[in-house]
Amino acid sequence: MGDIFTTISTFLIGLLTGLGVDPLLAHIIVAFLGAFLIANFVLLILIVNIWLERKVIGRMQDRIGPNRVGPWGIFQTIADLTKLVSKEIIIPSGADLVPFMAAPIVAVASVILVWAVMPLAKTAIGTDLNIGVLYMVAVSSLGIMSILLAGWSSNNKYALLGAFRAVAMLVSYEVPMILTLMVPVLLSGSMQMGKIVSDQQIWYGFSMPVAALIFYIALTAEIGRSPFDLLEAESEIVAGYHIEYSGFAFAIFYAAEWAHAFTVSALMAALFFGGWQGPFAETIPTLGIVYFMGKTFLIYFMSMWLRATLPRVRIDHTMSFCWKFLIPMSLILITLVVLVDKLAALAIGESYLDTTTMLAMTPRSLALLAVNLVTGAFAVWWIGVMGRRERERLAALEIKHVVIETSAAGQQAK
Amino acid sequence: MAFTPVTFVFLLMSAFALGGSLGVVINRNLIHAAMFLMLALFGMAGLFILLEASFLAAVQILVYIGAISVLITITIMVTRRIMGTTESVNKQWPLAAIVAAMIAGTLGFVLLGRFQNVEPVGAVPDTYIAEMGKALVSHQGYLLPFEVASVLLLAALIGSIVVARE
């Protein structure tokens, strides 16, 4: 019972070979079954996630949220989905049919493919590629392509403008994302997702808080959520690259967006918050998936919270924040981490790189934490300097805050 | 030759690579040509996976599809009047076809001669990524070309920023 994943797969393979199926074919069938389950899990959990997010954001903004379909409105998503599926897919005249229909499929595939290397529990990982992290970055870069395809093939200038803006933003934020993704790879000395998680006796989020924060900000931009929801700024570009999509084609884009938000929460949990690590998870792998999902939903809740709270950032601010702040900060951080890590390893010796127990990891974690705190303090100071400079620049231009004088206007009306 | 699943995948990926490449050169619509380029690169990535070079496959997708194809597509999109179907600029295609056929023939002749009586190499060792990484930064390996390439890219980056600021 301790390891439900191995138990089920050995049982199924035993059953199939007992029925006279070739052992190789039995393994292939079980592998396909696993892939089918993971892919559908990612899409089906959206039904819960979308309802949850609408409800939570509703409560945060002092509204009730969906409450008509079913108890607490839990069937609202199913009703919405039924509506979207039953609607006609309108293809605009002048649209390029093949890329137009391929774009949503590429978008959703690029998200689901990431789950192939996601370590759900100690014994449950689709395939523990030795280039897991690189694979993850590679398949998520296909998502950018789908946005370009959608924007171009729609034959609509708002869609094209939205796609340009989305691609500019996503490509920019990929840089700090990949730079901080180097941190777990550096610390565990491997790109294998399974090894990165099992090495986190002390979570990398604790020893490298600044790296985790930069990674999280970059991921928030990658999924296009508040405060970086410029991909669908209604007041500026109507709806962005998916303006011409309707019915089921739109539903797939929508699903890709939400699945992406859930996927990056899971990535954050796996790379910086110990994945399936928790009490007794080593010996009872079934517990691991509970911990992993718990952490993922906690991080997902945080992104809902941010979405409900923060206003949208202007596009030029978004870009300059990435290029002039996040990228230099992550470069400084990586350089310092490598330097201090190497020097400390030379000073302490072999035991420094030991990752077997929490106690053995403590010296390294403390050294890295010190580096992070210094970098973090520098980052806070730097933000202050940049803010003061911007205010001085605006003051020099004599741009004052526009104050709406309600009382004066009221007196004039009288 | 036995028809195994690997043969099927090989044929499929080769068809992607060859068909995609053909599509790139004979398509009049530049955006479609760029999409065929992506298909060809995807086929190449599949072939790398069959050769157990998964690192190269991932880099192929990340760099060529995720970055260079996006760059090419955006370049086409922001350039005026080349987005739709374009007429050919000149009438030199028969000459170009002859030259291309000659090059393909020569290369094919050389390659066919090369691939006779070859022995399959052994299995790829698990540590090949680590060895590759060490080779890139060791002075007995490719440290100098690696650094020169980095400097070249940095120069290109600075140059493009200078051009963009004017």
Describe the structure.
The complex is a heterodimer of chains A (414) and B (166). Chain A has 414 residues and is an all-alpha fold. Chain A is built from 15 helices and no strands. In chain A, helix 2 packs parallel to helix 12 (285-309), helix 4 packs antiparallel against helix 5 (132-153) and helix 6 packs parallel to helix 13 (315-348). The model of chain A has no long low-confidence stretch (mean pLDDT 82). Chain B folds into two domains: 1-83, Up-down Bundle (Four Helix Bundle (Hemerythrin (Met), subunit A)); 127-166. In chain B, 74% of the residues lie in helices and 0% in strands. Chain B is globular. Chain A binds chain B through residues 96, 99, 129-131, 134-135, 137-139, 141-142, 144-145, 148-149, 152, 160, 164, 167, 171, 191, and chain B through 31-32, 35, 38, 54-55, 58-59, 61-62, 65-67, 69-70, 73-74, 77-78, 126, 129.
Low-confidence stretches of chain B: none
- Can you tell me the CATH topology of the largest domain in chain B? Four Helix Bundle (Hemerythrin (Met), subunit A)
Biggest interface, residues from each chain: A-B, 22 and 21 residues
Number of helices, where a helix is a run of at least 4 consecutive DSSP H or I residues of chain B = 6
**What share of the residues of chain A lie within helices?**
over 70%
Shape of chain B: globular
Rg calc of chain A: 24 Å
Overall pLDDT metric of chain A: 82
As for the number of domains of chain B, it is: 2
Q: Strand share of the residues of chain A?
A: under 5%
Show unreliable segments of chain A. Answer: none
What is the beta-strand fraction of chain B? Answer: under 5%
The helicity of chain B comes to over 70%
**Mean pLDDT score of chain B:** 83
The helix/strand order of chain B is HHHHHH
Distance between the termini of chain A: 79 Å
Please state the structural category of chain A.
Answer: mainly alpha
Tell me the quaternary state: heterodimer
How many domains of chain A?
Answer: 2
| Backbone structural class of chain B | mainly alpha
